[in-house]
Design goal:
This protein is an alpha/beta fold. 35% of the residues lie in helices and 18% in strands. The strands form 3 sheets. An 8-stranded parallel β-barrel has the order 7-8-9-10-11-12-13-14, surrounded by 6 helices. A 4-stranded antiparallel β-sheet has the order 2-3-1-4, covered by helices on one side. A two-stranded antiparallel sheet has the order 5-6. It is elongated. The structure holds phosphoenolpyruvate and manganese (II) ion (MN). The site of manganese (II) ion has 5 residues, from loops.
Length: 341
C-alpha cells in the first residue's frame, strides 16, 4: 500500500484518522491536494504492510482506494499524481504551456558582468538568471566561485531585471545564506546522490532544480527526487545535462530520450541543459531546439559577454547576441509542438 486515494467527499476529520492510523504502523503520509481529490503518499517501509492491513485502511471512512506502486519511487511517480506538476517561483510558472529559459554565466565573476548579462538575457526573453557562486570544479586549483558575495551580485541582478535566481548549493552548511538570496536551488550533477544534501533541500520551501548525475540512470535520478520529496518539498524540476558515454566528440552525451521517458514516469517538470550536455558553443542551438521538440518544459543555457575570458565553461557559453538569435529561432519550434516561449 503506497498511495491512498480519498473520496472527493472526504473530510479533514477523516484525513486525520487515516494519518493517525498510518503513524500507528510506523508510517507517514504526504498529502497532495488536487483539484478533484486528495491523495496520500505513504512514506516508510510499505513492503511489510499485509493484505489485511491494506483492507482495513481501504474500509476506513473517506478512503476510495489504495494503490500499490511497484516502482521504488512513489511521490515522483505518475501513479501518485496524474496531472503535471506546476511550480511557481516569484510569479513565474514552470511546467505550464510556456517554456522557461534559465540563462546566465557558468560562474558569477563580478557585479558588473552579472548585472549586464542579466539585462541582456532578459531583453532576449529569458525567465530566470542562472550563475554559480559555489562551483563544483574538477580541480581544487580552479576558480571555486565567489560564495556569498556571488549570491549578493545575483540578488542585485534580480533587483535590476526582476528575473528570479537559479544557483547551485553544494554544502548543507550554506543552506541559510542560500535561502536568503536564491529563488531556485540547483543541485549539481556531481551531488545528485549526495543524500544528506537532498534531505536538506527537501526541508526548504524553495523549488529544487535537480541535475542528472554524470552516470546516473533515470531510475536513480528519480530516486534522488524522491529523497527531496520525502521531506515535504514537492517542487522538484528534473534537469538533463548530459551523461558519460564512450563518445568524446562532445563533452557529454545529451540524453534527449530522457525527456519523453521522464514524462511517462513522472509528473515533475523537465528542463534540458544543452550547454553542459554538449560542451561546445556551436552545438548548443541545435540541441536546444531538439530539446523543445522532445517535450522539455525549459532550457538552461550558459551565456557570457566574453566567453574567451570566462573563469569557467567559456567554450560552451553563448555570447548575448547568439543567445538572442537562438531565442527567436526557438519560437518556431515551440509553436510546432504547441508551446510558447
Ligand atoms: C553548472 O550548472 O554550471 C554545473 C556545474 O552543472 P552540472 O552540475 O550539470 O555540471
Ligand atoms: Mn557550467
Amino acid at each position: 500500500m503506497d498511495i491512498i486515494v480519498l473520496k472527493p467527499s472526504a473530510t479533514e476529520e477523516e484525513l486525520k484518522h487515516i494519518t493517525k492510523k498510518l503513524e500507528s504502523m510506523g508510517l507517514r503520509a504526504q498529502v497532495s491536494k488536487g483539484t478533484e481529490r486528495t491523495i496520500l503518499g505513504v512514506i516508510g517501509d510499505t513492503s511489510k504492510t499485509t493484505e489485511e492491513v491494506e483492507n482495513s485502511v481501504r474500509a476506513m471512512p473517506g478512503v476510495e482506494n489504495t494503490v500499490r506502486v511497484l516502482k521504488p519511487y512513489k511521490l515522483a511517480s505518475r501513479e501518485f499524481r496524474k496531472a503535471p506538476t506546476v511550480i511557481k517561483s516569484r510569479g513565474v510558472i514552470i511546467g505550464g504551456k510556456k517554456i522557461n529559459v534559465m540563462a546566465g554565466p557558468c560562474s558569477v565573476e563580478n557585479k558588473a558582468m552579472m548585472v549586464d548579462v542579466a539585462k541582456k538575457v532578459k531583453s532576449a526573453g529569458a525567465d530566470f538568471i542562472r550563475g554559480g557562486a559555489y562551483k563544483p570544479r574538477t580541480s581544487p586549483y580552479s576558480f571555486q566561485g565567489l560564495g556569498e558575495e556571488g549570491l549578493q551580485y545575483m540578488a542585485m541582478a534580480r533587483e535590476k531585471t526582476g528575473l528570479p535566481v537559479v544557483t547551485e548549493l553544494m554544502d548543507p552548511r550554506d543552506m541559510e545564506v542560500m535561502e536568503k538570496y536564491c529563488d531556485i536551488i540547483q543541485i549539481g550533477a556531481r551531488n545528485m546522490q549526495n543524500f544528506r544534501l537532498l534531505l536538506e533541500v527537501g526541508k526548504s520551501r524553495k523549488p529544487v532544480l535537480l541535475k542528472r548525475g554524470l552516470s546516473a540512470t533515470i531510475k536513480e535520478w528519480l530516486m534522488s527526487a524522491e529523497y527531496i520529496m520525502s521531506q515535504g518539498n514537492h517542487d522538484v524540476i528534473m534537469c538533463e545535462r548530459g551523461i558519460r558515454t564512450f563518445e568524446t566528440a562532445t563533452r557529454n552525451t545529451l540524453d534527449l530520450s530522457a525527456v519523453p521517458v521522464l514524462k511517462s514516469l513522472t509528473h515533475l517538470p523537465v528542463v534540458v541543459d544543452p550547454s553542459h550536455g554538449v560542451g561546445y558553443r556551436h552545438l548548443v542551438a541545435p540541441m536546444a531546439k531538439a530539446a523543445i521538440a522532445a517535450g522539455a518544459d525549459g532550457l538552461m543555457i550558459e551565456v557570457h559577454p566574453k566567453p574567451e575570458e570566462a573563469l569557467s565553461d567559456g567554450e560552451q557559453s553563448l555570447r548575448p547576441d547568439e543567445f538572442k538569435k537562438l531565442m527567436k529561432e526557438l519560437q518556431a519550434v515551440a509553436h510546432a509542438v504547441g508551446r510558447e516561449i
